[in-house]
Amino acid sequence: MSTVPVLVAAQIGAETPGVPGIAANFSQDNGWTYLVKAVLIIVFLLTSVLLAIWFERKVVGRMQVRPGPNWHGPFGLLQSLADAMKLLLKEDITVKAADKFVYLLAPMISVFCSLLVFAVIPFGPEVRIPWTDYVTPAQLTDFPVAVLYILACASLGVYGIVLGGWSSGSTYPLLGSVRSTAQVISYELAMGLSLVSVFIMAGSMSTSEIVDSQTALWWFLPLLPAFIIYVISMIGETNRLPFDLPEAEGELVSGYMTEYSSMKFAWFFLAEYINMLNVSAIATTLFMGGWRAPWPLSAINDGMFNEGWWPILWFLAKMWAFMFVFVWVRGTLLRMRYDQFMHLGWKILIPAALGWVVVLSVVQGVRQFGEVDTRTVLIAGAVAAVVVLAVVWFWPEKRPDPPGRPGGTAGPAAKEPFDAFAGGFPVPPLPGQSLPPSSRRRALVPDDARPPGASTPPGEHPENPHDKEVDRA
């Protein structure tokens, strides 16, 4: 992996000014320039979070046929500011059993790691500061492995969640933090593999260079499978519905944030929304052309809308379109079960992303070094993909033997029925076990469908005190 940036820098370094391997030219920037840009980025993120909270409430309100916030300020715009002030003024409670230092450090880790990502996101090309002749890129910094830096920041951010759950000294926060660890590992693998296809097509891991490589075609079109995988992974990465298992209210109260209050809770809340902005900006930069204008506007007057301050507008519009996808998904889908969630990540997204990378690598290799017609390769790849999907879709599932056959419920090798209340309290079944049918289903099973001499349906206990309680309820 370490040789890839060196090779990329060697190939394109001679064509770009400034630092080899990147397209943006930071040669005129000094310490004051970097400081002003950093402050502007922080202010932009904090104000965007306030706007995102209002935006989410308004959109979900419209989806649920209700107005949403409309009292504080015009259109309810000051409602997010009022909520922030409420969190600041609430009583700050520190749990007695908590590890005080780690308990305070955890939300800071989450926020600081989330603030680092926008350092390499290009808002636009070079811009001229008004009333001066000073020209600088609309970007804080860039380097040949900028996307790897983004993935590293996202990976470190989960330590805030893990340490917050562990240091709280409580069961439910610990369970929420463990879930978050498994979730990030699962979906960051799929996310990283989906970004590899962009590296292959762009020939660089620099964000400014990737935006420049999309001058003629945005990468989401030729890399549509990788784009879909990234969109699913970014929702799972940010713990948003339907993937908000680390903070499932019905199971874990509030997950890793259960024992936090006041400003410490607000920091976790802030980190979550900043991460939403981060992954939306990454999707815009790597797949949607970055700050480049859409096609009809980009062709007007030799691309005049891709110069000056206009590109910042296109970047923000694309980023907020992805923010709308977050809200849309939240207002549409239900929370998944944890086993379904992990099955989607490990058995669907990761194999699909890995297979796509292999196919794309072969196609690019043939295009660059082979003499085979590209159209023939694409047709063959499409046919192979259809065959693989058909095999996966129609592959017969392994079903248990029916009753009366070896291994069936009523056969000679019948297993002991699982009793969830054998220990005096309910426990979930292990893999391979199944709960007996409820007594409420007895009326649905005809007498002739029952085995001879059986007064209850197959696999059902004749008397289950829990069923009696349910019937009485």
Automatic annotation (TrEMBL):
Its EC number is 7.1.1.-. The keyword Membrane applies. It is a multi-pass membrane protein. InterPro entries: NADH_UbQ_OxRdtase_su1/FPO, NADH_UbQ_OxRdtase_su1_CS. Signal peptide: none annotated. GO terms for molecular function: NADH dehydrogenase activity; oxidoreductase activity, acting on NAD(P)H, quinone or similar compound as acceptor; quinone binding. Keywords: Cell membrane, Membrane, NAD, Oxidoreductase, Quinone, Translocase, Transmembrane, Transmembrane helix, Ubiquinone. The chain crosses the membrane at residues 34-55, 101-123, 143-163, 184-204, 216-235, 265-288, 308-329, 341-363, 375-395. Its main location: membrane. Residues 401-473 are annotated as: Disordered. Residues 460-473 have a biased composition (Basic and acidic residues). It is found in: Cell membrane; Membrane. It catalyses: a quinone + NADH + 5 H(+)(in) = a quinol + NAD(+) + 4 H(+)(out). NDH-1 shuttles electrons from NADH, via FMN and iron-sulfur (Fe-S) centers, to quinones in the respiratory chain. The immediate electron acceptor for the enzyme in this species is believed to be ubiquinone. Couples the redox reaction to proton translocation (for every two electrons transferred, four hydrogen ions are translocated across the cytoplasmic membrane), and thus conserves the redox energy in a proton gradient. This subunit may bind ubiquinone. NDH-1 is composed of 14 different subunits. Subunits NuoA, H, J, K, L, M, N constitute the membrane sector of the complex. This is NADH-quinone oxidoreductase subunit H. The gene is nuoH.
